[in-house]
Amino acid sequence: MKRIKISILFALLASILSVNAQGVIGKWKTFDDETGDAKSIVEITEKDGKIYGKIVEILNPAKKDAKCTSCPDTDKGKPVLGLYIIKGLSKDGKEYSNGKILDPTSGKLYKCTIALDGNDKLKVRGYVGISAFGRNQIWTRVK
């Protein structure tokens, strides 16, 4: 009887850990839309119930020292490395929305939603106005 209880406890613990592993928090590899090449690593974190994403690694050595010359407001002129590009997303069912995403190449700020697509893929949608006027990117989890 004791073994059964212990087995059930381990099974419950494993299921809880697997649910947490499937969250959006963590490091994600981004890809260039035109070439498909790996572009950067973005670390997604949560602060005060909101989701934020910061560029923690630039994978192209020629762009490691790039600055966000076209970015708006306080991000203008900042190094791309260390820049928060996902800002203030809130959980809305299975996705996160009501925040912004910054394209450091163009300096444009878009509305944003993100949602898991399986365990190790993140669907990131940036758009203007309504979600129909936007585009998706798929990021992959960094293990």
UniProtKB/TrEMBL annotation:
Residues 26-141 form the DUF2147 domain. It comes from the Bacteria. Residues 1-21 form the signal peptide. The keyword Signal applies. Keywords: Signal. The keyword Signal applies. This is Uncharacterized protein (DUF2147 family).
